[in-house]
């Protein structure tokens, strides 16, 4: 395997790691947002009742 192929493989691996890390961050933020939204909805309904 030549240097160019190794560089391409390394870049591909780095891209996959970054994609996975980004997905994990997005999922965590979405869960946090969904949880806070649910709390706000419950708080509003408690105030109305």
Identify the notable features of this structure and list them briefly.
94% helix, mainly alpha, rod-shaped
Radius of gyration: 21 Å
Number of strands: 0
- The helix/strand class is mainly alpha
Q: Which percent bin holds the helix content? A: over 70%
Number of domains: 1
Largest β-sheet summary: none
Q: Enumerate how many helices there are, as a single number.
A: 1
Mean model confidence by pLDDT: 91
Unreliably modeled segments: none
| SSE string | H
Shape: rod-shaped
The first-to-last residue Cα distance is: 70 Å
Portion of residues in beta strands equals under 5%
Please outline what is shown here.
The protein has 49 residues and is an all-alpha fold. Helix content is 94%, strand content 0%. It has one domain (1-49).
């Amino acid at each position: 395997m030549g240097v160019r192929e190794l560089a391409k493989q390394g870049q591909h691996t780095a891209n996959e790691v970054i994609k996975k890390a980004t997905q994990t961050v997005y999922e965590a933020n979405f869960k946090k947002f969904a949880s806070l939204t649910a709390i706000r909805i419950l708080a509003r309904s408690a105030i109305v009742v």
